[in-house]
């Protein structure tokens, strides 16, 4: 009996220690998140206001911009995207759009055909060109590199000696109108800057999401708030550390859309990474390892969010499996010291996404142990307030349409955070069962 009681007391002690550690983790992470929200919101507000004050005095067009749009089975949305990109506040003769498609896309009417027909019907505005990737493998990065080869060819033929900026947008991207003008202004102010990442929201289909008035809408709000909580502050911190000549304790990543690179910088890191499907994450790592700062851009690239719960789980599985795919592309023999840090860092981030519900449950139990029923209630209220603060930052620093689209999701964002872990668990399970985890999510 004494041995059993001893084992039971040890187990109770271990559980109590785990609960306290989880509570400290949740409270510490929340405090850091609040600090990050304030910092990113202040930066975004000041950067937008500062640009508005100077843009009237300057005519944009210093850089020549190529906008790359990788597309696979995007017939339903691509025409709207092309029309939107052509309306950006930038001289039409100083940028062009390259739609990068895969030659193996089949069907009665391919994305390439839709784009070519649109360009013929609408000849005015920035030029639109289709670039086709051909080869045995299908991967977004291969399409992007095919488009990059076209850019290099055009530079040699007619744009030699000019500052060339290469941007990437998704087929559902809706960037704010001043984006290119802001980038042009930054290149004048900071000639050494060579990599940029826009802030991101997921409310381009806000009306459809608002009609759902539920988890789907809350998820889109959370994804935009997460940009303020984590991604923008990380870019700002890394930019400042690189400027000060200090090493990075962690590498930032790019989002895969709303990202821009000086052509020479892109060539210096070998183009778009071919070693996996998540090229945005990897190119961010490659730039950081080369000591190149990624400057955040305070104008949003708004994208769509799933409008069904099944589609939402698939999207989260798609995103999370992109993280896991790193380990299918790297082997111990190919790991260099400067590759280990990005892999370990991203593994920790991915693990947090997967384990968040369990950690919060332990933290709630620890709060109950310390303060009775009031503890978990207070902790839950803190989480609601924390995510509402992130949503409020999104409302105050984004265009009016985005701000309006966030309001009807109040009170549901923490549930969306928990729901997101289902996609992570699904990705892990499918990989363990050796099933496909990185299929394209259809719109």
From TrEMBL:
Highest taxon above the source species: Bacteria
A GO molecular-function annotation: glycosyltransferase activity
EC number: 2.4.-.-
InterPro entries, sorted: Nucleotide-diphossugar_trans (IPR029044)
Gene3D superfamilies, alphabetized: Spore Coat Polysaccharide Biosynthesis Protein SpsA, Chain A (3.90.550.10)
Keywords: Glycosyltransferase, Transferase
Residues in the signal sequence: none
One Pfam family recorded for the sequence: Glyco_tranf_2_3
Keyword Glycosyltransferase: yes
Glycosyltransferase recorded as keyword: yes
Name of the protein this chain belongs to: Glycosyltransferase
Organism name: Streptantibioticus parmotrematis
């Amino acid at each position: 009996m004494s041995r059993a009681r001893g084992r039971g007391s040890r187990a109770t002690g271990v559980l109590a220690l785990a609960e306290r550690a989880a509570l400290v983790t949740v409270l510490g992470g929340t405090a850091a998140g609040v600090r990050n929200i304030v910092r990113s919101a202040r930066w975004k507000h000041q950067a937008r206001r500062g640009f508005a004050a100077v843009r009237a005095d300057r005519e944009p067009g210093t850089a020549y911009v190529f906008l790359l749009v990788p597309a696979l089975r995007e017939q339903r949305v691509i025409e709207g995207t092309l029309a939107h990109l052509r309306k950006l506040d930038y001289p039409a003769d100083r940028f062009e759009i390259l739609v990068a498609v895969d030659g193996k896309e089949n069907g009665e009417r391919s994305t390439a055909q839709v784009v070519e027909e649109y360009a013929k019907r609408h000849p005015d505005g920035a030029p639109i060109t289709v670039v086709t990737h051909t080869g045995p493998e299908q991967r977004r990065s291969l399409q992007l590199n095919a488009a990059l080869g076209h850019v290099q060819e055009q530079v040699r033929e007619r744009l030699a000696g000019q500052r060339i900026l290469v941007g990437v947008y998704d087929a559902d991207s809706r960037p704010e109108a001043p984006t290119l003008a802001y980038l042009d202004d930054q290149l004048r102010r900071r000639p050494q800057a060579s990599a940029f990442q826009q802030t991101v929201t997921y409310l381009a289909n806000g009306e459809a999401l608002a009609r759902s008035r539920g988890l789907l809408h809350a998820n889109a709000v959370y994804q935009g708030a997460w940009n303020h909580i984590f991604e923008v502050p990380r870019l700002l911190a890394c930019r400042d550390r690189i400027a000060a000549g200090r090493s990075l304790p962690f590498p930032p990543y790019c989002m895969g859309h709303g990202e821009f690179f000086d052509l020479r910088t892109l060539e210096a890191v070998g183009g778009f990474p071919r070693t996996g499907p998540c090229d945005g994450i990897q190119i961010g790592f490659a730039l950081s390892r080369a000591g190149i700062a990624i400057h955040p851009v305070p104008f949003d690239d708004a994208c769509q969010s799933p409008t069904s719960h099944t589609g939402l789980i698939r999207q989260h599985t798609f995103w999370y499996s992109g993280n896991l795919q790193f380990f299918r592309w790297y082997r111990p023999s190919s790991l260099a010291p400067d590759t280990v840090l990005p892999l370990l860092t991203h593994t920790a981030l991915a693990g947090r996404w997967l384990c968040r519900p369990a950690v919060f449950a332990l933290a709630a139990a620890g709060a109950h142990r310390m303060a009775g029923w009031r503890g978990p209630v207070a902790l839950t209220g803190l989480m609601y307030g924390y995510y509402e603060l992130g949503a409020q930052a999104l409302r105050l620093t984004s265009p009016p349409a985005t701000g309006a689209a966030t309001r009807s999701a109040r009170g549901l964002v923490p549930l969306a955070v928990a729901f997101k872990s289902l996609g992570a668990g699904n990705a892990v399970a499918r990989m363990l069962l050796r099933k496909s985890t990185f299929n394209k999510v259809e719109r």
